[in-house]
Write a structure and sequence with these properties.
With about 110 residues, this protein is an alpha+beta fold. The protein has two helices and six strands. The chain has helices at about 35-50, 75-85, and strands spanning about 5, 10-15, 20-25, 60-65, 90-95, 105-114. A six-stranded mixed beta sheet has the order 1-2-3-6-4-5, covered by helices on one side.
Length: about 110
């Protein structure tokens, strides 16, 4: 059975199916915040969506990180490394990408087992 979470007119923030949950690109609500604050916000949103789907970060399978400036890689990782479950790290990609709004400093998608 397909289950959708936080459904909007354009997309769902997460969709679960067949034992997996797919989390849409998450960005910070406060786009005036610095990179590390935005990273914390994005990770909190992922935590909330995982909980809503009945899982948690220990069951993450993959995370994709999008940064408009790859030079921010280490700053983002300072927050990410403190958040991730060190016993169960997911596969991850981090790429430089032009994001939908120039004020967005980080965006992440995720896939987890439920």
């Amino acid at each position: 059975m397909i289950k959708r979470f936080q459904v909007g007119s354009r997309m769902s923030q997460a969709v679960s199916y067949n034992g997996f949950v797919y989390i849409a690109g998450q960005v910070a609500d406060d786009r005036t915040a610095d990179l590390q604050t935005q990273t914390r916000s994005v990770l909190q949103k992922i935590d909330q969506l995982l909980a809503e789907a009945g899982t948690d970060k220990s069951k993450l399978l993959a995370i994709d990180v999008f940064l408009p400036a790859i030079v921010d890689f280490e700053k983002m990782n300072e927050i990410y490394d403190g958040w991730i479950d060190p016993k169960n790290p997911p596969a991850r990609a981090c790429v430089e990408a032009r994001l939908a709004d120039p004020l967005i400093l980080v965006e992440m998608t995720a896939v987890a087992a439920v």
